[in-house]
UniProtKB/TrEMBL annotation:
Ranges for region Disordered: 1-33
Species annotation: Streptomyces prunicolor
Species lineage: Bacteria, Bacillati, Actinomycetota, Actinomycetes, Kitasatosporales
Protein name as catalogued: Cellulase family glycosylhydrolase
InterPro entries: GH
Length: 430
């Protein structure tokens, strides 16, 4: 049943009950398991920032809180925040702070993404990075300095907001590499610089993160690496999408490969971390049509939450997205119009009720004392993605009832590391 709007304190207490077990041997327990949604404004999509209406945002946020969720992830647009390399618009920053406050009134905590960047198949660049003024946003020193200043400004503006989870550099910034060629070393410098800037004004208990789409994990020689995702920032974010590698079409929308994809993405991310205690956040997952037919979407949501919640060290699950894109807006890929928990009129869809029911269940971390060894190079990373030999063997074991952990080949003989993760046996691909 869909819940009425609740206060933040009630959200925290309810979330506390979701975690029934410890995170695993050698790890500190995570006090809450968080469930939220990526906020897509119902009226005007993210173009609504051009004429921000607090009343409309308040209505959307009340609907979200009514599902029993405890947080939202929100996105302003980079060109509106920083239309000139040396100009950050105070009005735009104030709008963002206002939205964070409105979320707090609804009982919702907030993660703020800074550099947008990429959203729902559209890329948003300030004019000072384009055409006659083209700058590579990842490598141009002045462009990096400008983005760092934007993150620093957002951190200063939001530092005292009690419902702020933290700052993220931007949404799936690795989508921008096609038009901004970059090396692994240059990506590392870019991320390190912006993460430090985002951290500068925030209290130590707030998160600083970054995100990447699945090519970071599955793409051969992609310059955003699994190591960067799993070792930079305060936790690891994963965006396990069923269309990556054509997963849902390859295996079917009800297949184990689809229903356990978020669980798999969480376990894969844990393997690349330097230590066993680093949390993982399933920060984007959703049920895009036609990959997941509408009739299958509720069960997909239930299974995704249940299976991911069995993973030790899971921070939470944040659904993409809150509201469908209105079909009056043109030129989106078809799947982007159907991803919401609410339709474009604000009515909850069957998937909304399924998601609300799934997050209200008790969730218990399950033992993973057997690990499947992942042996790949940057140039063969695709073995771990849909269609790859490693992915298929992990899923075969999972379908047989085993819950395999993932361990990198270079750690497979490290007894201390394996013991810290509770792994007693390692197995390799046939």
């Amino acid at each position: 049943m869909i819940h009425s709007r609740r206060t933040r304190a009630f959200a925290q207490n309810t979330s506390q009950r979701h975690r029934q077990g410890k995170t695993g041997p050698g790890e500190d327990p995570i006090p809450t398991l968080r469930f939220g949604v990526n906020y897509t404004p119902r009226r005007g999509w993210f173009h609504s920032w051009h004429d921000f209406d607090p009343a409309h945002a308040r209505e959307d946020l009340a609907q979200i809180a009514g599902l029993g969720l405890d947080h939202v992830r929100i996105f302003h647009l980079w060109p509106l925040l920083q239309p000139n390399r040396t100009l950050i618009r105070r009005t735009a920053v104030d709008q963002l702070v206002h939205l964070v406050d409105l979320a707090g009134e609804a009982g919702l905590d907030v993660l703020v993404d800074g550099v947008q960047g990429h959203l729902s198949s559209f890329d948003f660049y300030p004019e000072w990075t384009r055409s006659w003024h083209h700058r590579n946003v990842f490598t141009d020193p002045e462009a990096i300095t400008a983005q760092a200043e934007l993150m620093r400004t957002l951190g200063a503006a939001l530092a005292d907001r009690p419902n702020l989870i933290g700052l993220q550099l931007g949404n799936e910034l690795n989508n921008l590499v096609e038009h901004n060629p970059v090396t692994v070393a240059e990506v590392d410098h870019y991320l390190d610089t912006l993460l430090a800037a985002a951290r500068e004004h925030l209290p130590p208990d707030r998160l600083v993160t970054h995100s990447a789409y699945d090519a970071a994990w599955y793409g051969d020689d992609h310059p955003f690496t699994p190591e960067a995702s799993a070792r930079k920032g305060d936790l690891t974010t994963v965006h396990p999408w069923v269309f990556s590698g054509d997963c849902a079409r390859r295996y079917g929308p009800r297949s184990p490969q689809v229903l356990h994809l978020a669980e798999y993405g969480t376990e894969l991310a844990k393997a690349y971390a330097t230590g066993p205690a680093r949390p993982v956040w399933v920060q984007e997952t959703g049920a895009p049509e036609p990959h997941i037919p509408a009739a299958d979407a509720p069960e997909f949501a239930r299974a995704t939450v249940r299976n991911a919640a069995e993973c030790a060290g899971l921070w939470g699950v944040t659904w993409w997205c809150s509201h469908d894109v209105d079909r009056s807006l043109a030129d989106y890929p078809e799947l982007e119009y159907t991803l919401g928990l609410f339709d474009s009129s604000g009515r909850p869809k069957p998937i909304a009720e399924a998601f609300a029911e799934a997050i209200a269940e008790p969730h218990t971390v399950q033992l993973r004392d057997t690990a499947l060894v992942l042996d790949c190079t940057p140039g063969t990373r695709s073995v771990s993605g849909p269609g790859g030999a490693y992915f298929e063997e992990w899923m075969r074991l999972r379908a047989e009832g085993l819950r395999p952990a993932v361990v990198l080949a270079e750690r497979a003989a490290d007894e201390g590391y394996l013991a810290a993760r509770g792994i007693k046996e390692v197995v390799r691909l046939p």
